[in-house]
Amino acid sequence: MQIELTPQQIEQQTYFKTFVEEYVIPQAKLHDQQQHTPPELIQRLAQQGYLGAIIPKEYGGGEMEAITFGLLCEQIGRASASLLSLLTVHGMVCQSIMRWGSAEQKQQWLPKLASGEIIGGFGLTEPNIGSDAKSVESVAIAHDDHYQLTGHKKWISFGQVADLFLIIAQCDNKPTAFLVERKTAGFSTKPINNLLGFRSAMLAELIIDNCMIQKQNLVGRIGFGFSHIAGTALDHGRYCVAWGCVGLAQACLEASLHYTKDRKQFGTFLSNHQLIQHIIADMIVQIKAARLLCYQAGCLKNSGDPALIMETSIAKYFASQMVSKIADNAVQIHGANGCSDEYPVQRYLRDAKIMEIIEGSSQMQQIIIAKYGYQSFLREMRKNH
Fold first, then answer.
1. Which of 211, 286, 311, 348 is a plausible cystine mate for 149, CB 3.0–4.6 Å?
2. Domain edge (last residue) among 66, 96, 115
3. Is the dihedral of CA 320, 349, 89, 246 positive or negative?
4. Do 247 and 374 fall into the same domain?
5. Residues 281, 298: one domain?
6. What percent of the chain has pLDDT over 70?
């Protein structure tokens, strides 16, 4: 596995870092307090080509390879976990259409998603359905020329502003995916505020009340909704989140290094205390380990290796556990100051906890990893006998 960045990747990484330090980091605290991401910032992402990063050039996208896209997610995550979730869910819709959409759906939607003319949202989770996502309660009834869709989705990132939603519902008791426009009659959203973290991710509930969905808005086939379309979307989401966790952990490390260099206790800087050095050392090692797992997943994505599903789950599992611990230690290093909004580490800790839940909880990742582990073990056993 090649773990050294190419000159082109290093150049892009520099661009990403410059962008977030100019446009995202200075306002991240304010956006968190206001529980809002201004449309101007979303448009800046679009103008930079970041919303269309993974979309093929023929549809107006950047056709960014996986490692470079990961570096983008890392830098956005370092600046704002809430803004990272925009790249995540928007990309999940793009990826699903790219993989499973019809030629007409690709032509109709991908150029608009690439340019930022429309924002994508992903509607899987419901009030009563979280990890058991294949059992969604939303229902689509087939008619001659349309589907009649009814349901209720919850915890939808950027659901307050998204224009096009990929909705998973049961059709003939089979999970099925549909593209639903905000302007559809019977469709409405309700803001969700005052969350622990991701406060500027503009989460919403989606109310789908007997919406008439055109036949051509079916993605893939009936029954493909969870196993194929949602699976594709979630794999992309986990990859994006894993890299974002690395970025958020890096922000925790940088804040801790800055604080311990300037703060004195017992007559010397905190950076000179051995216990603090131990914590900092562990942070550095854990971040490097998570980044390598993300590189591994990215390399497999670039090569189209089927092992990427498990490796992405491993990266997401390890990185989300890692960032939660590192953010906790960053607050501990800051002491009482770490509990104040004068310092960013309290926001980092709140956001880090969310990373362990979104796009499949840590426990769901453990199930996926163990399942693939057993399958790999059995294959090896059969080979040897």
1. 211
2. 115
3. negative
4. yes
5. yes
6. 99
1 lies in some domain: no
CATH of the domain at 243: 1.20.140.10
- One of 74, 117, 359, 380 is an active-site residue; which one? 359
Q: For residue 250, what are its two tokens?
A: 């890096």
Listed as own residue / partner, the contacts of 13-17 with beta carbons closer than 8 Å and 24 or more positions apart are 13/71, 13/75, 16/71, 16/72, 16/74, 16/75, 16/76, 17/75
Judgement on whether residues 99 and 35 belong to the same structural domain of the protein:
yes
Domain limits at 206?
120-224
- Residues whose CB is less than 8 angstroms from the CB of residue 302 and which lie 6 or more positions away in sequence, other chains included: 65, 66, 67
Of the three residues 115, 149, 176, the one that is the final residue of a domain is 115
Q: Convert the pLDDT of each residue in 56-89 to its tens digit.
A: 999 999 999 999 999 999 999 999 999 999 999 9
What's residue 325's pLDDT?
A: 98
Matching residue, tokens 């960013």: 344
Q: Amino acid letter at 52?
A: G
- 359 as an active site residue: the answer is yes
pLDDT, tens digit, for every residue of 186-244?
999 999 999 999 999 999 999 999 999 999 999 999 999 998 999 999 999 999 999 99
Number of domains in the chain: 3
